Amino acid sequence: MRLNGVDDRLERHQYPTTSEEIIAAHGNATVELANGSERLGDVLERFGDQTFEDPEDVFTTLRAGVCHRGVGRRFYSDRDPTTDAEDGPAPVSF
């Protein structure tokens, strides 16, 4: 996820603040995702009314709230066990 300068704007915003105030001030800014983009306001609206104490609270909410286009390949995990028909890596004991 790339914030395209939104992070600078959010850091300069006065805190504590509400999601409503951030959406009013910065809601039309776009966040670049792995497969597209999304408006900052759309992401924050998913969580309803919130109060943010600092910019890091907003960044955490943004990371948690981006749509499925922000995660790359959906349902992919390189940590899934191999199936019986596959030759996977040899187990390592630590």
TrEMBL record:
<protein>
    <recommendedName>
        <fullName>DUF2795 domain-containing protein</fullName>
    </recommendedName>
</protein>
<dbReference type="InterPro" id="IPR043899">
    <property type="entry name" value="DUF5789"/>
</dbReference>
<feature type="region of interest" description="Disordered">
    <location>
        <begin position="74"/>
        <end position="94"/>
    </location>
</feature>
<dbReference type="Pfam" id="PF19102">
    <property type="entry name" value="DUF5789"/>
</dbReference>
